[in-house]
Amino acid sequence: GDWSDIRALADDFDLMADLVINHCSSRSRWFENFKLGQHPGADYFVEASPDEDFSLVTRPRATPLLREVTTLAGKKHVWCTFGPDQVDLDFQNPAVLLEFVKIIRLYLDEGIRIFRLDAVAFLWKQLGSNCLNLPQTHEMVRLLRTLLEHAAPEAILITETNIPNRENLAYFGNGNEAHLIYNFSLPPLLVNALLTGNCKHLKTWMMSMPPAQSGTTYFNFVASHDGIGLRPAEGLMDEDEIDNLVKTIQSFGGKISWRALENGKNKPYEMNISLFDALQGTLNGPDQYNIERFISAHTVMLALEGIPAFYIHSLLATGNDYEKLEHTSHNRSINRHVWDADELGSALLDATSQHANVLGKLKKLLKIRSAQPAFHPNATQYTLQLGEAVFAFWRQSIKREQSIFALNNITDQEQLISLADINLIELDDWRDLISGAVIQEHRGQILLAPYQSMWLSNRAMDA
Predict the structure, then answer these.
(1) CA atoms of 113 and 97, how far apart (whole Å)
(2) Cα separation, 456 vs 404, whole angstroms
(3) What is the SS3 assignment for 197-228?
(4) Who's near 298: CB < 8 A, 6+ residues apart?
(5) What is the set of active-site residues?
(6) How many CB atoms lie within 10 A of CB 445?
(7) Interhelix angle for 94-109 vs 135-151, to 10°?
């Protein structure tokens, strides 16, 4: 395809572009020019001496930080945060910033209105610091936000920052940086809750999350083309719990990617596995609730404050791709299956397949969710205390015309809930938006099957 195809898509959809702002390919024209000493590119990359002290630099990978490169001017060492094939760009050079402003302008002209800033937390390098979330990086995000607002007030900026939760929240700024931030703590905490049958950490995290300012919100996801990051779980889960989670994922066929620490040791950075296979069982091993557990994860995501995002392989219930993993020797390949169109079409026509089953259920949930004002990205959210086996929260629409109680059994056992603990207003008629069941007795009890979710609402909106 070409830009005319992108423009045609933009006529019918809101398009998001991945703006890879921290680094570019070592096979790019810019980097080839760097080696030749030609422009553009000759001075676009971060250079450093291997004799410098890099002990404070935060590393998301276990590969060496510097890569030696042969250029026409001799041997040079370039900075590679994410591995030798991805070379970091030097934003201390104004020409690099201007290149990215031109790229953004091009994307706007071609119909793109949503911009994902890839790995932006690592953008500014300063020896003697950890080179992560530096003030200059936040200033750069604010600058791009200002330029976007001037050129296209409807444009949206999303920051992709796979870092601990508190640092991640800083990218909202004072409502003047990202419109949306990736909710990176959700995937590891939700997967852990479903594998352990205990939502303690998920609730603690949720109660600590500040409501997003109007005009900003959370970008919720539970799976992506990368792995399930573990850094966002740091400080929320203890080391033994993370170790048990890692071992369970490995027993389900997953791989682990590592990052280097200051002391020279390595630490798990992310779990590489398809979400469908990650949820095939519990800490006790695989069981018969794979699909129910998988749907539960997405039902939770759909109800949370923010905007939900689906990885295509979650919509299709794609499993681990061991053949691609073996072919590439790259752990992330396990969750980057490439479907043959005819094969996928046949799988989705087969009503007995996991692919058709999951897609049908998720489409139903999406249709219901999209019609409910209480699921507005900025609608009120409160965490409910119904024990550690039921993850529950309350949403109320901005105009207060609708309330929804989201009840999620995250265990493989039935759970009995007293409606008195939820305190349904007796003057309202309540029913479950998912099943359609009407609540007859406001002070009675309801039974949740393993991994069942309910969206109890006093005002159901037709999808």
Answers:
(1) 19
(2) 5
(3) CCCHHHHHHHHHCCCCCCCCEEEECCCCCCCE
(4) 222, 308, 310, 314, 362, 365
(5) 118
(6) 11
(7) 30
Smallest CA-to-CA distance from 304 within 418, 240, 219, 425 is with: 219
The dihedral formed by the CA atoms of 27, 28, 33 and 39, expressed in degrees to the nearest 10 = -170
Sheet with 180-182, strands from edge to edge, namely 16-20, 114-118, 156-160, 180-182, 217-220, 307-308
Each residue of 380-426: pLDDT tens digit? 999 999 999 999 999 999 999 999 999 999 999 999 999 889 888 87
Contact 387, 416 (CB under 8 A): no
Residues 343-374, buried b or exposed e (16+ Cβ, 10 A)? eeeebeeeeeebbbbbbebbeebeebbeebbb
Letter for the amino acid at 429? Answer: D
Paired tokens of 249:
């994922």
pLDDT in tens, 236-258: 999 999 999 999 999 999 999 99
Backbone phi, then psi, for 245, in 5-degree steps? -65, -45
d(CA 80, CA 351): 47
SS (H, E, C) the chain: CCHHHHHHHHHHCCCEEEEECCEEECCCHHHHHHHHCCCCCCCCECECCCCCCCCCCCCCCCCCCEEEEEECCEEEEEECCCCCCEEEECCCCHHHHHHHHHHHHHHHHCCCCEEEEECHHHCCCCCCCCCCCCHHHHHHHHHHHHHHHHHCCCCEEEEECCCCHHHHHHHHCCCCCCCEEECCCHHHHHHHHHHHCCCHHHHHHHHHCCCCCCCCEEEECCCCCCCEECHHHECCECHHHHHHHHHHHHHCCCEEEEEECCCCCEEEEEEECCHHHHCCEECCEECCCHHHHHHHHHHHHHHCCCEECCCHHHHCCCCCCHHHHHHHCCHHHHHCCCCCHHHHHHHHHCCCCHHHHHHHHHHHHHHHHHCCHHHCCCCEEEEECCCCCEEEEEEECCCCCCEEEEEEECCCCCEEEEHHHCCCCCCCCCEECCCCCECCCCCCEEEECCCCEEEEECCCCCC
C-beta of residue 155 within 8 angstroms of C-beta of residue 147: no
Of the candidates 427, 181, 176, 155, the one whose C-alpha atom is nearest the C-alpha of residue 305 is 181
Kindly report which listed range (167-181, 206-220, 304-318, 424-438) carries the lowest average pLDDT score: 424-438
CA distances to 289, 307, 321, 346 from 340, rounded to whole Å, are 28, 30, 13, 10
Residue with tokens 């970091």: 88
**pLDDT tops 90 at residue 460:** no
